[in-house]
Amino acid sequence: MSKYNYPNTIPFYKFLSKASSIAKNPIPFHNKWFNEAGDTFSIKSPFYGYIVLTRDADITKHMLQKNHKAYNKSKIQTTYLSKYVGYGLLTSSGDYWLKQRRLIQPAFHKEKIRNLVSIINKAIETQVNAIETKKEAVDLYSLMNELAFEVVAKSLFNFSAEEDTLKRLQFIIEKLQLFIIKELRLPYKKLWYSLKGEIRYHMKLVKESRAIINNIVEKRRVSKENHDDLLDMLLHAQYENGSTMTNDQLIDEILILFVAGHETTANALTFTLKLLAKNKVILNKVEEEVKHVNSQNLSPLQQISKLNYTKCCIEESLRLYPPAWITDRVNIVDDKIKEYNLKKGTILGASIYELHRNKKYWDNPDDFKPERFFEDNRKQIMPYYMPFGAGPRLCIGNNFAMYEMILAVKSIVEKFDITSNSDAIKINPLITLKPVDVKINFTLKES
Predict the structure, then answer these.
(1) Three-class SS state of 165
(2) Residue 426 forms beta bridges with which residues?
(3) How far apart are CA 350 and CA 60, in angstroms?
(4) Ranges of each domain in the chain
(5) What distance in Å separates the CA atoms of residue 119 and residue 106, rounded to the nearest whole number?
(6) Is 311 in contact with 406 (CB distance < 8 Å)?
(7) pLDDT at residue 183 above 80?
(8) Residue 268: CB partners within 8 Å, gap ≥ 6?
(9) Which of 95, 98, 119, 115 is nearest to 107 (CA)?
(10) CA quadruple 159, 172, 231, 328: dihedral positive or negative?
């Protein structure tokens, strides 16, 4: 008898028969199978062996935190993703990842990010002031995508990159993200993509994006000016032996920061503003808080610490629509989790989206209730809340993202009345959880 045992298995033919629908949106299928088979189930794939999917908090924490040394990121991230976005913090594993994390972590300490707040705030205000009021509803994601890209670009490069150059970089990064998804979801079409020249075209874009960033890095290296941005911090970060990153390493990390830092925030802001626009009572509370904070003549950094209810709204939005909606690992040794004995090489996926809506952990999980995150309730819910991951690989930019989102929501609700004609929120789970066709109306507030 095998010494290995797995959670309830969903037959592979069920997966295969729905493959194209699953490729478009796996979430309804995950939900159906969780409800049928329990909070953890497995599929035995002829391509990958056993794949285990869970929405159980203990199993997720075991993999990401308690026994994280027994797990590496899967090839999906370390091989397929790194081909396009470089071998940086998001895509590396093992000793190299640890070395890079230790090197880069200080640049993202709260103190360092606080120094960036004025750059972040200025970029947000420029973008918000450029929003035009129209009679018809506008596509919210494209506005937030623009805003988030500008914030990352200015925080990384401050004043050292031309607008046209950044626009081109934005175009390339979005093209690459869309193609990565096609390759990951439909691996059996790889030969077809190759014959059509799609892989060659996208690898050319990779080369161009690296050349753009290399040019910015080279200019900064010869410049004697101090910019107080992330690029300065990354250039001066030293390993234990006193050496610094090469241009290639810098490009890897900067590409990852663009990919991980702008789209996730754009998604989260879109969902948050849509939820506020369709929940008037909650929006009014945010507006009152913003008005109160504005009356106190505080710096942007001081404002962030006072906008507590606004922060709770963002956290609740991240619970309902976590941009990093799923995460995976592969065990590099045999491992026992709860009653399961998993063979080395098992792919383990944790659906953060489903975990955040699991009735076992959350009351009325589909409702938007920011008060869940009031101080008195936090201790009870935080073990089940993982929008930025958990354990040593917790998202390095979590403080940066929260500061940016609080300031962006504040800036928008103080200038505009936001309304929405429809309650529906459609999603597209790509590498990140993307909002689809989210429209809201912006009307200038009467001063």
Answers:
(1) helix
(2) 436
(3) 6
(4) 12-444
(5) 18
(6) yes
(7) no
(8) 314, 317, 318, 321, 323, 401, 405
(9) 115
(10) positive
With a pLDDT cut of 70, the percent of the chain lying above it is 97
Q: Which amino acid is at 224?
A: K
Dihedral, 275, 386, 58, 62 alpha carbons, nearest 10? 160
DSSP assignment string, 76-118: IIIIIIHHHH-SSTTT--HHHHHHHHHHHGGGGSHHHHHHHHH
The pLDDT tens digits of the residues spanning 9-21 come to 887 777 777 777 7
The dihedral sign for the CA sequence 328, 368, 429, 29: positive
**Confidence at residue 91, expressed as pLDDT on a 0 to 100 scale:** 86
Q: How confident is residue 304, by pLDDT bands cut at 50, 70 and 90?
A: very high
Distance CA 74, CA 200 (A): 24
Mapped to the 3 state alphabet, what secondary structure does 211-272 carry? HHHHHHHHHHHHCCCCCCCHHHHHHHCCCCCCCCCCHHHHHHHHHHHHHHHHHHHHHHHHHH
The tokens for 273 are: 């503003």
**How confident is the model over 357-368, as a mean pLDDT?**
97
By the 10 Å C-beta count (0-12 exposed, 13-18 middle, 19+ buried), 114 is classed as middle
| Residue whose entry in the numeric block shows the structure tokens 């910019």 | 227
Alpha helices (runs of H) in 49-197, residue ranges in sequence order: 57-61, 75, 82-85, 94-104, 110-129, 140-157, 163-185, 190-195
Residue 148 CA to residue 265 CA, distance in Å, equals 6
pLDDT tens-digit map of 166-181:
889 888 888 887 777 7
Superfamily in which the 12-444 domain is placed by CATH: Cytochrome P450 (1.10.630.10)
